[in-house]
Design goal:
With 138 residues, this protein is mainly α. Helix content is 78%, strand content 0%. The protein has four helices and no strands.
Amino acid sequence: MTAEEKTKHLEIIQGVINRLANNSFLIKGWMITVSLAGFSLFINQKEMPLLGTVSFIVILFWVLDAYYLRQERLFRELYNSVRKTKRKEIDPYSFDTNSVNGKVKNWFCTLFSPTVILLHGSVILFIVIFIIIIKGGF
């Protein structure tokens, strides 16, 4: 593998990282949009199952966001691995992340990482507090 090919390989991996980061950003935006739409519907219709549906959707977005964050971390680790490896030892244009899988926290740990839990967890917490207030718990 030539230096030019290694550079191109790194550029392609960086493109994948950028797309994964963009997907994670879009998921956060959609989660906020959907949860606010669900709350506005609830305020107009006063149906409790609607809050359960919103909670379920937020949890789905949370899981999907954690998945994309873990994939991004895997590809960042792959990028560093390719960057540090001698050109002769690199598998040309390989995107197999199995070689770096052990260096990145598993999906469950990523699910509770600060970047993911702060937004999604706070929305879930808000929903729970909102339900308690509506039911007359406070």
